[in-house]
């Protein structure tokens, strides 16, 4: 699950309505509302659109440390 519940507080801080962010992020209002209420897990593509709509890169939301990533062997 992608922890997208950060969206609502940041959206409010930016003075954006659900309609505003849905329009900016090009995600439907109903989908965005369901994601914010944590009723559904967002698709990665929607999480990226929402993050960018709020002015963040998705990796900043997760604060990924790329140097500590490990890869599974096949």
What does this structure look like?
The chain has 74 residues and is mostly helical. The protein has one domain (4-68): 434 Repressor (Amino-terminal Domain) (Orthogonal Bundle). 51% of the residues lie in helices and 0% in strands. The protein has five helices and no strands. The two termini are 23 Å apart. The model has no long low-confidence stretch (mean pLDDT 80).
Gyration radius (Cα, Å) is: 13 Å
Overall average pLDDT: 80
**Second-tier CATH architecture:** Orthogonal Bundle
User: Strand content of the residues, in percent?
Assistant: under 5%
- Note the main sheet: none
Assign the CATH topology.
434 Repressor (Amino-terminal Domain)
Tally of extended strands? 0
Name of the CATH class: Mainly Alpha
Number of helices: 5
What do we call the CATH homologous superfamily?
Answer: lambda repressor-like DNA-binding domains
Helical proportion, percent range: 40-55%
Large-scale geometry: globular
Low-confidence region ranges: none
Order of helices and strands: HHHHH
Taking the alpha carbons of the first and last residues, their distance comes to 23 Å
- Helix and strand content put the structural class at mainly alpha
The total domain count is 1
Report a brief summary of the structure.
The chain has 74 residues and is mainly α. Helices cover 51% and strands 0% of the residues.
Name its key features.
mainly alpha, 434 Repressor (Amino-terminal Domain), 74 residues, 51% helix, single chain, 5 helices
């Amino acid at each position: 699950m992608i922890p997208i519940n950060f969206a609502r507080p940041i959206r409010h801080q930016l003075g954006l309505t659900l309609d505003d962010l849905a329009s900016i992020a090009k995600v439907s209002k109903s989908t965005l509302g369901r994601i914010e209420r944590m009723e559904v897990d967002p698709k990665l593509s929607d999480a990226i659109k929402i993050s960018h709509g709020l002015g963040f890169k998705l990796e900043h939301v997760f604060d990924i440390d790329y140097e500590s990533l490990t890869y599974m062997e096949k």
